[in-house]
Design a protein that fits this description.
Layout: H1 3-32, H2 46-55, H3 62-74, H4 90-125, H5 130-144, H6 147-161, H7 174-177, H8 179-205, H9 208-215, H10 220-249, H11 252-258, H12 263-273, H13 276-304, H14 306-313
Helix pairs in contact: 1-13, 1-14, 4-5, 4-8, 4-10, 5-8, 6-8, 6-11, 8-10, 10-13, 11-12, 12-13, 13-14
Length: 314
C-alpha cells in the first residue's frame, strides 16, 4: 500500500471520527433541551427528585455531564435506562436489539439483491417487450413507495386477511415472523438492483466483445453467465453499500409496525418515555453505522481507482 493510499485512509478516518464526535455533542445537547425530566415520576417530592438527580449526576453542569458520558461510552458504558427499563444497562439493550435489526437488514439485502438481479436480467433479455415494461413498472413502484407502506399492506393482506404469515414478530418463532418485515424492507433493494442490473446488462449486451463472443458461437447461457452478467455486477456491487446502510437505518417504522423488538422500536419507545440515555445511544449507533459504512465505501473506491484518492488529496 503506497503513501498516497495511507494518507487518504488517515484523512477519511479523521473526518469520520470528527463527524461522530460532532453528532454525539449535538445529540447530547438536544436531549438536554427536551421538555420534562428523565425522572418522570410525579409522585416524587422535590427533595426525592433532587436526590435521584444527584445519584445519576444530572445535577452537574452539562459540560461535565458530557465529559463523563464520553469517557464511559469509550469504555462501552452507555448508562442505564431511567424510565423505560428501570436501572437496566443501555449497552445490553442495544446489543439484543441490534442483533435483530442487523439480521433483518442483512437478510433483506440478500433477498432483495437476488430477486432484483434476476428481475433485471430478465428485463434486459426481453427489452422493449411487455415483460420489460412490467419489470420496469415494478422497479418504479419499489423506488416510489416507502418500505413502511409495503409493511402495512403485507400486515393487512398476508398477516390479517390471508393469515399466511404472522402479522407481528414473536421471539418463539423468530425466523417465520421475520419474513414479513424482511419482505417489506427488501422491496426497495429489489427495485434499485433491478434498475441498475437492467441498465448495465443492456450496455454490456451492446458492447463489441459480446458481439465477438456471439460470432465465436458461444451458447447463450455461457454468454450471459460468464460474460454479460459478470461484467454487469460491478455497478450493482457499488450501490449495495449505501443500500445496506439505508436498510440498517431505515428499519425504524417497519420494526414498529411489525412489532419487531429491534433498534427502531427501542428508539421510538424511548422517545415516548423521554429515556435520554437510550435516545442518545440508539441515535449515535445509527449515525455510527452510516459513517462507518461510508468510510469503508470511500476506502474501497480509493483502492479500486487511484484517481479518487489523488483527486481528494489535491
Amino acid at each position: 500500500m503506497d503513501k498516497s493510499m495511507l494518507k487518504y485512509i488517515a484523512k477519511r478516518l479523521m473526518i469520520a471520527i470528527a463527524t461522530l464526535f460532532i453528532i454525539l455533542v449535538v445529540l447530547f445537547v438536544l436531549t438536554k433541551m427536551l421538555p420534562g425530566s428523565p425522572i418522570n415520576n410525579e409522585k416524587l417530592s422535590p427533595a426525592q427528585r433532587a436526590v435521584i438527580m444527584a445519584k445519576y449526576g444530572l445535577d452537574k453542569p452539562i459540560l461535565e455531564q458530557f465529559v463523563n458520558y464520553l469517557v464511559n461510552m469509550l469504555h462501552g458504558d452507555f448508562g442505564i435506562s431511567y424510565t423505560l427499563y428501570k436501572e437496566y444497562p443501555v449497552a445490553e439493550l442495544l446489543t439484543s436489539a441490534s442483533k435483530i435489526s442487523f439480521s433483518l437488514g442483512i437478510g433483506a439485502c440478500i433477498l432483495g439483491t437476488i430477486i432484483g438481479m434476476a428481475l433485471g436480467v430478465f428485463a434486459a433479455l426481453h427489452r422493449n417487450t411487455f415483460w420489460d415494461t412490467l419489470a420496469t413498472g415494478i422497479s418504479v413502484l419499489g423506488v416510489s413507495i416507502p418500505s413502511f407502506v409495503f409493511a402495512l399492506l403485507l400486515v393487512i393482506f398476508l398477516g390479517n386477511m390471508l393469515k399466511i404469515l404472522p402479522a407481528s414478530y414473536s421471539p418463539r418463532n423468530a425466523i417465520v415472523s421475520s419474513i414479513l418485515p424482511m419482505l417489506a424492507l427488501s422491496m426497495g433493494v429489489i427495485a434499485n438492483v433491478a434498475r441498475f442490473t437492467r441498465t448495465e446488462m443492456i450496455s454490456v449486451l451492446n458492447s463489441e466483445y459480446i458481439t465477438l463472443a456471439k460470432a465465436k458461437g458461444l451458447d447463450k447461457r455461457t454468454l450471459i453467465m460468464r460474460h454479460t452478467l459478470r461484467n454487469s455486477l460491478i455497478p450493482v456491487i457499488t450501490i449495495l453499500g449505501p443500500i445496506l446502510v439505508n436498510l440498517m437505518t431505515g428499519t425504524m417504522v417497519v420494526e414498529y409496525i411489525c412489532g419487531v423488538p429491534g433498534l427502531g422500536k427501542l428508539l421510538i419507545n424511548s422517545i415516548h418515555a423521554n429515556d435520554v440515555n437510550i435516545i442518545v445511544a440508539c441515535s449515535f449507533l445509527y449515525a455510527a453505522m452510516y459513517i462507518i459504512m461510508t468510510l469503508f465505501i470511500d476506502i474501497a473506491y480509493g483502492l479500486i481507482d487511484p484517481r479518487i484518492r489523488l483527486g481528494k488529496d489535491d
